[in-house]
Amino acid sequence: MTGAPGERTGVLPGIEDTIAAVATATGRGALAIVRLSGTGVSHIAPRILDTWPLQPREATLVLVSHPDTGEMIDRAVATYYRAPASYTGEDALELSVHGG
Fold first, then answer.
1. What's the pTM value of the predicted model, to 2 decimals?
2. Which residues face 34 on adjacent strands?
3. For the segment 22-63, what is each residue's pLDDT rounded down to a tens digit?
4. What whole-number distance in Å separates Cα of residue 11 and Cα of residue 19?
């Protein structure tokens, strides 16, 4: 997608919500990928990751914790994609977590 210089473009224009979705196939597996995309990534990430900010496009080992209790949930590999250099054109965070 293209737009005027400086115009925000993405896969889903007009959608302002931050979304999170499992990006791996349904079923059992050793790893699962969870992707977050949208303007809220920079607000959500520091609530769930022990390391933030991350260097863009660099895989980083992190601890993932429950945002309310602080209880550790998993150790994961996180990769941050800063807008507009992501698939959606928005800030995006990809978490490779343990599957089940």
1. 0.83
2. 22, 95
3. 999 999 999 999 999 999 999 999 999 999 999 999 999 999
4. 13
